[in-house]
Design brief:
33% helix; globular; 75 residues; alpha+beta
């Protein structure tokens, strides 16, 4: 889970998150400086993380909890 190098372009890191979390749409907010994700299916949920690792942790927590109504495929 710690495969995100901090020196990389934030937009590239957001694309990496997108590839790992296919049930989510992920992006980097230029104004906020944070990473964001919204669910593609099931209940609409918006998630924010200050770092890619933080966002991925929150995505995994929500998916494994079962409260979203979407299947967990692992990260």
């Amino acid at each position: 889970m710690n495969s995100f190098a901090s020196s990389e372009d934030p937009r590239h890191l957001a694309r990496q998150l997108q590839q790992r979390s296919k049930q989510w749409i992920c992006w980097y907010g230029n104004r906020t400086g944070h990473y964001w994700a919204v669910t593609r299916h099931g209940r609409a949920v918006l998630v924010e993380g200050r770092t890619p690792k933080e966002l991925l942790s929150e995505i995994i927590r929500l998916e494994t909890s079962g409260e979203l109504g979407i299947p967990y495929y692992g990260a």
